[in-house]
Amino acid sequence: MTAEGLALAVAMAVASGLVGCFAVMRRMSLAADPLSHVALPGVGIALALRFHPIFGAAALLFFGAYLVWALERRTRAATETMIGVVFSAALAIGSMTTSGEQLIEALFGATGAISRSELIFGLVGAVAVIAFIVAKRDSLIVMLVSPEVARTAGINVNRLNLLYLEAFALTIALGLRYLGVLLMGALIIVPAATAKGLARNLTGMLVMSAGIAVLATVVGSWAAGWLHQASGPLIVIAATVVFVLSLARKPA
Fold this sequence. Notes:
Elements: H1 3-25, H2 32-36, H3 39-48, H4 53-75, H5 79-97, H6 100-108, H7 116-145, H8 147-152, H9 157-198, H10 202-227, H11 231-246
């Protein structure tokens, strides 16, 4: 892996670990995988218009997150329910607009050199997600505990919820190159689930989750180069191994 590729992978992993902590606490553990499938139509549209697939995926993920937020507000249904509705439609459209080798890369991650535009998008996006989580972590916690208390404290709950969903969507877009649509959700959830069982406080959980995500990404990417395999499955396997090993320790 080149220095640029390593920097992008580490930045993506840190963002995944931080976003995943709040996804786990919001009981959105099963939401990451279906939301990531919203990227499929974007990949197909971008390829048809001769754009880089990552930008098409990001655009549809942003739109999908906004749609989930809008439907959740209108119907008062759970976030996971709205993600399931959007996921079903996106998967159907994506299967018709993407085919062949492009579909395989979209599902399991792509290989090859990283373009300059992809590097800039990835690093800027990762920094934006990390900055958002660090700056808004206290507000996110208050909103999780009680939306009513958050509103009393002057927090715009609806806007904060939308911003978190968009950060969630952006994080998925950042990892599509390495893990693809099918596996990106695992890197968001597994390190956070591991850290939740080991950490003693929120700061510890955030740091530990980001560290585990980075470790899994680096080890998985190295193993992929050594074994001449796709990096996505090996990254997820590395993260899962850490989770299994963590079960031997007593809960914090």
